[in-house]
Amino acid sequence: MVALLSWGVESSAQARRYALVIGANAGDPSDEPLLFAVRDAERVAQVLGSLGGVQAEDLILLKDPGAVEVERVLGALNARIRADETAGAESLLFLYYSGHADPSAMHLGGSLLHFDRVRAALGSSPAKLRVMVIDACRSGGLTRTKGARPVEAFKIDASGQLDGEGTAIITSSAASEDALESQRLKGSFFTHHFVTGLLGAADTSRDKRVTLTEAYRYAYTETLRATSRVASVQHPTYAFKMNGRDELVMTRLDREARGLGRLRLGSAGDYLIFEGGDRGAVVAELSVVEASELTLPAGSYLVRRVAGGKVFEAEIAVEGGRRSGVSVDQMRRVSGGEVVRKGMSDEVGASWGLSVGGEASAEVLPGTGPILAGVIGAAVDLDSVTLRVELLAGQSRSENASLSLSQDLLGLEVAALKLFDLDALALGFGIEVGGAWLRQRFDSEGTAPSRASLIGRGGAVVHGSWSVQPWMWIYAEGVLGAWLVKEQSVETGEVGFGGRLAPSGSAGLGFRF
User: Fold this and answer.
1) Domain range annotation of the chain
2) Cα–Cα distance list, 448 to 364, 409, 443, 453, 489 (Å)
3) Which of 45, 52, 140, 320 has its CB surrounded by the most CB atoms within 10 Å?
4) pTM of the model as a whole
5) How many distinct helices (H) and strands (E) make up the chain?
6) What are the pLDDT digits (tens) for 316-344?
7) Is 260-333 a domain of CATH 2.60.40.1120?
8) Which CATH architecture has domain 351-512?
């Protein structure tokens, strides 16, 4: 994961901010260890320190702590806020937890920390504003006890004011729901979208400030959308009791800072932003209705846009202190085959195409000459394999002093290929098998009637193709195969089947539809 460098949002004496951020991969002995809870906590700490106005000395990150340590640190932090004369009347305490939980307690490395104790410590804090975000299974009980329930984002009417007193609690799931992690995102669905919102995706007002309400609404919508594609849907919940005039600004995006730049996404669609390339970490996943802007560390990113089943990509360099932008015109349209093979769009499960080309194959029998054939094929790309069927029609000619031979071949072959994509280039291998009807005609001084037979062919395929357009590709293949033919022994006159090595090569054009 990229590290968010310091972008010091100024904290006045009237609005000092403190944060306790906790990540616990290990829960109870009966809990399966989480993979990304600590990483989620690191991301939240990074964005609070860089864009959230929390100074380094006021930010505490705990990794896999026990319950006793969490209570001790929270108590010490409250004592510090009480004793800190610079905290002023408008101090804010932000508490974040990612890990295992049940409706009544956090699971911390074999120990339990009951939510009643956490709420009590939060409620008795001298900080005038208190925000708690819990990313854990069945954590919605926290908000349910405050009279909240899972609701759609547009029904939320909440303001977390900076100049008033109050408490806000956000949870990643309802009281009876699991909170899910994503291997692709390398984190939980909720925290990923909450952080993406804080980086700018949630700034619906376009005022370069992300409020607590905006961050929650964005995380709710995107978490619900993302988890609706898997087995267990999550409904984040929100409970608040705040007084005051202005909304609580969680992050500010309008300050220049060393090492941070802005990325503007100029077109509607679903976006994935990868660090470095598509094998890098997913920095953000977001839906854009209109132009949107994210704050990111300087570096190279791959931006992928999905809209209407079509996928576009571009490599973008984000420079510190500058704004970079990407539009559809700057992006490469990804071919349908690559979209399917890489699983880039949930809307596209298969990609169909037709191809035409030519093939040269080694002779069927000694002295009969190489076969030159025209090829028409149809193929379907699936996520794990490409299946193809081809029709061949070809001829060969050979002659000697007493005989002239011409052969007509009509064949059908099927192939299964495994392809690997390097941008527009696809390389792969596979196998093919098939059969053909072969007719031989003789021209000689004597009598030599025409004859026909069925032959077989199979072999290993090496494939390469290049998408010159999203709807068209050129290809070349080589096959190390063998003809299976019926032969008559000169010595004994017996008839049997025999194999004959028959390498071949082909090339042509393909068209997707």
Assistant:
1) 17-252, 260-333, 351-512
2) 19, 19, 7, 16, 19
3) 140
4) 0.71
5) 7, 30
6) 999 887 888 888 888 999 998 988 888 88
7) yes
8) Beta Barrel (2.40)
